[in-house]
Amino acid sequence: MVSEKTVERLSLYRRVLQQLWVEGKETIMSYDLAGLLHVTPAQVRRDFMQLGYSGVPNSGYKIRPLLESIANFLDSPSSQSAVLVGVGHLGLALLANFAGRWRQLSIRAAFDKDPNKIGQTYHGCKCYAMSELKKIIDETKSIVGIVAIPGDGAQNVCNQLVQSGIRGLLNFSPLRVKSPDYVFVEHVDLSATFEKVAFFARKMKYYEQEKNKKTESGLIEDENETLTTNQ
């Protein structure tokens, strides 16, 4: 079975290659693509071997057929549906971001406990009561569930989604939910990511200041040596 990391890289390759294609580029070398994504050229070639696609020596990979190969590997041959639970600020942002992005993958329904949101349509997606979860999942044939609610209640929501037939969970709650072995779960902890970026931003700022101090100190020493020589 293909690894999670390989799937992640293939998805990243696709986004970069799509942008390059829009910019008018038709071919790319493995080392150029590797440099854009901070991986090794050997890793790029190994990943593309999973697709059964190989480049041409001294010419690289043709972007258009490479994109088609990635699509054939990653995308479902038929349309694939997802549902979202939690139409708060995060849920609305996800609906807006994902609307119309993929041809074969879409969020078909949203759920919330707020009676003021039930029955409303957000970014082309209708919001239903949680009591209709199983019914709507069956109707849309969804197997992917997105959890966009606070930590409290996230486990219960995930349990309901799994019991209703969901086999892949994208969890945005800060709680690390538990699931059966036959359900794939991807945790996206925005708070932890924010803290990580803030931490390394401080480190980078400190290193920059230290480097500037050493540079300034070196310049002062050079100036002193010049003055001494002139004297």
Describe it.
It is a single chain. Helices cover 51% and strands 15% of the residues. By secondary structure, the chain is α/β, with parallel strands linked by helices. It has three domains: 4-74, Arc Repressor Mutant, subunit A; 80-188, Rossmann fold; 194-231. The strands form two sheets. The chain has a seven-stranded mixed sheet with strand order 5-6-4-3-7-8-9. A two-stranded antiparallel ribbon has the order 1-2. Helix 5 (89-98) links the parallel strand 3 (80-85) and strand 4. Helix 1 (4-22) packs antiparallel against helix 4 and helix 2 packs across helix 3. The chain is globular, with a radius of gyration of 25 Å.
Task: Quickly list its features.
8 helices, 15% strand, two-stranded antiparallel sheet, seven-stranded mixed beta sheet, Rossmann fold, single chain, 231 residues, Arc Repressor Mutant, subunit A
Order of helices and strands: HEHHEHEHEEEHEHEEH
Provide the gyration radius in Å. Answer: 25 Å
The top level CATH class name of the largest domain: Alpha Beta
Quaternary status: single chain
